[in-house]
Amino acid sequence: MPVDLLNVRLISTLMRISVVGSGYVGLITAAGMAEKGHQVVCVDVDKSKIDMINAGEPPIYERGLKEILDHVVPSGLKASVDLESAVLSSEVTFICVGTPSDDDGSINLKYVKEVSGQIGRILGRAKSYTVIVVKSTIIPGSTEEHVIPILERESGKKAGADFGVVMNPEFLREGAAIEDFMEPDRIVIGSHDARSGDVIESLYYKFKAPVLRVNLRTAEMIKYTANAMLATKISFINEVGNICKSLDVDVYDVAKGIGMDHRIGPHFISAGPGFGGSCFPKDVKALVHKALEVGVETRLLGSVLAVNEAQPSVMLKLLKTKFRLKGAKVAVLGLAFKAGTDDMRESPATPVVEGLLKEGADITAYDPEALENARSVFGDRIRYAKSVKEAVAGAQLAVVVTEWPEFKTLDLSGMARKRLFDARHIVNRDLLPGDVEYEGLCW
Ligand SMILES: NC(=O)c1ccc[n+]([C@@H]2O[C@H](COP(=O)([O-])OP(=O)(O)OC[C@H]3O[C@@H](n4cnc5c(N)ncnc54)[C@H](O)[C@@H]3O)[C@@H](O)[C@H]2O)c1
User: Fold this and answer.
1) Residue 6 and residue 3: Cα distance in Å, rounded?
2) Whose CA is nearest to atom 19 of ligand 1?
3) How far lies 12's CA from each of 8, 194, 290, 375, 389, in Å?
C-alpha cells in the first residue's frame, strides 16, 4: 500500500498497543496512550505490579497517574503477564524495560535483548504486520546491532518487510511525567523504514507536538544528547554555586541574571546537591563509555560526572564545618532524587545520609512519597517520620535535601535547636522566625 494511503487509513484509526515493561516509562506510556483512546495492554514480569494496575492502583507515585488509571482501567488499559497474547493482538508493541549501567559504566542491554528474543519468537507466529518500538534508552547503534538481528533471528522474518522497527525515545521527567507525556515538546521517531515511521507518526496523531523523523541511531543519539546537555547544565551551575558560596554570593540571583539572557534561558540552572535518578547518571556514563569505545575523549562529560559525584561531599564538608554532627539529632527532609516522585535511584540523599551516619549523626528522615523505597536503602539505620513536625521534634539540625513544595514553609518550633541547612533553595526565609539559623548550600 502506498505510504500516504496507509497514513490516511491509520490517522483515523485508534490502534491496539502493547507495552512491555510497566515501570515509570512503560506505565505512563500505556496510561497516556489509553487516555488518547488506544486499546492498550501493558505487560510486566512482576505480577504484583500487574495486579495493582488492574485494580487501578499505581505501583509508583506520579501526580495524576491515579486519576488516569481510574479513567482508563479496564476499558482502555489492561495489564497482563501474558506477553504472547498482548503482542499477537497488537499493531504496535513498545519495549520499555530498564537499561541499567554495568560496573564499568557501559549500558547493560540484558533486559532489552531478553524482551527482543521473546517478542521475536512471538512475531514468528504473527499473522499480520506489527511495529516494534524501542522506547527504552539505548546507546546509539543498539537497535540496529542488537534489537533487529535478535527479532529477525527469533522470528525468521525480515524487518521492514514482515514487521516494522522504530526507536522512539522518551523525554518525560519523573514528577511531571503525565504532562510531559501528554504534551511533549517534540516527538522523535527514528525509523528503520518509512512505513514503520508512518505507523508510529499516525499513532501520535492526537498529540499536538512537532514530530521529528530521523533514522534509528540518530533517535538514540538525540536522547543521550538531551540528557547529557541537561546534566551538563546542572553540574555547571553547581560548580558556579560552589564558587558563589565562597564569595558570599547567592547563586540563585546569579542564575536569574544569566537566565534572562535568551541565549542561556532560565531552565535547569538550579544549584543543589547534584543530579540523580535512573537516567542522567547512567546515561551520561553510558555515553562516555561508548565514546571511549569509538576512540573519542570526553573531557567535558567526564567532568560533568565528576562534579556531580563530588557535590554531596561538598555538602557534607559544609555541614561538618558549620555544625557538630557527632551525636546530633538530625532531621533529613526529603529522600527522593527530586520532588514529585518516590524514586530513590541514585538520589543524592543516599550519600548525604550515609555521610551523616558516618559522622555519628542520629537521623530521622521524612519524605512525602519515598519512605517505602528509602527503607530498602537505609533499613533500620535511621528512623522514619510521617511528617516534618515528627521528623524535626527534638532535632538539633534539619537538612532539606529534596525540593518538595511543602518544605517552602517549615514549622521548626519542635526543634531542640533551630538550625536549618537548605540544599535546594526551597525554604522561604522570609517566613522563618528570627531564632532559626539558616545555612544554604551555594548561597
Ligand atoms: N524513569 C524515567 O524518568 C525515564 C525517562 C525516559 C527514559 N527512560 C528509560 O526508559 C527505560 C525504562 O525505565 P524505567 O524507569 O521505566 O524502568 P523501571 O525499572 O521502572 O521499569 C522497567 C520494568 O520492566 C519490567 N521488565 C523487565 N524485564 C521484563 C520482561 N522480560 N518482560 C516484561 N517486563 C519486564 C520490570 O519488571 C520493570 O517493571 C530505561 O531505558 C530508561 O533509561 C526512563
Assistant:
1) 5
2) 98
3) 7, 19, 41, 48, 54
Question: Sign of the C-alpha dihedral, residues 270, 271, 277, 283?
Answer: positive
Q: Which atom of ligand 1 is nearest to the CA of 26?
A: 16
d(CA 132, CA 399): 46
The CA distance from 439 to 425, in Å, is 10
Cell of 357: 551516619
The answer to whether residue 279 is catalytic is yes
Q: DSSP string of 291-303?
A: HHHTT---HHHHH
Catalytic residue among 42, 96, 244, 279: 279
Q: Whole-angstrom Cα distance, residue 218 to residue 222?
A: 6
| Closest to 370 in 3D by CA, of 388, 381, 384, 354 | 384
Whether pTM > 0.90 for this model: the answer is yes
Cell of 438: 539558616
Pocket-testing residue among 19, 20, 44, ligand 1, by greatest number of atoms within 8 A of Cβ: 44
Q: Is 362 helix (H, G, I), strand (E, B) or coil?
A: strand
Q: Is 341 in the pocket of ligand 1 (CB under 6 A)?
A: no
Which amino acid residue places its CA nearest to atom 25 of ligand 1?
A: 21
By alpha-carbon position, which residue is closest to atom 7 of ligand 1? 170
Query: What would the pLDDT profile of 143-192 be if each residue is shown by its tens digit?
Result: 999 999 999 999 999 999 999 999 999 999 999 999 999 999 999 999 99
Question: Which residues, including other chains, have CB under 8 Å from residue 54's CB and lie 6 or more apart?
Answer: 73, 74, 78, 79
Take residue 6 and report the three cell numbers written for it: 496507509
What separation in Å is there between the alpha carbon of 95 and the centre of ligand 1?
A: 9
The pLDDT assigned to 3 comes to 47
Name which residue sits closest to atom 36 of ligand 1, judged by CA: 21
172 CB near ligand 1 (under 6 Å): yes
Q: What are phi and psi of 248, to 5 degrees?
A: 60, 45
Q: Is the CB of 98 under 6 A from ligand 1?
A: yes
* Residue 332 DSSP label: E
